[in-house]
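Title: Prediction job returns without error message
Component: structure pipeline
Severity: low
Priority: P3
Assignee: unassigned

Description:
Job completed but the reporter wants confirmation the result is attached to the right record. Sequence as submitted:
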Amino acid sequence: MVKHIILWTLKDELSAEEKDQVKKGIKEGLEGLAGKIPGMVDIKVNINGLASSNADLMLDSTFESEEALKGYAVHPEHVAVADGKVRPYTKIRSCLDFEV
């Protein structure tokens, strides 16, 4: 199994209300990929970080293998969510992929 963890920080120019809407859209879009990506075991997006956090939201996903993770990266449905709901609104992306 492979874990794929992403932390995002949203762009500064977004208002608090806009950030809430963006986070909800990212969560809905990414979690909506469940069952659609070959080799994806689980996908969750946390949008309710504590005030002590220095990131705005987190993707926690699990794949059967590194090959499945590579397939997810280029899967058209994932690319559509990333291009439409994530990349336009994020300024920092940190990623950690590891075997479990």
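Comment from assignee: result matches the submitted record. The radius of gyration is 13 Å.
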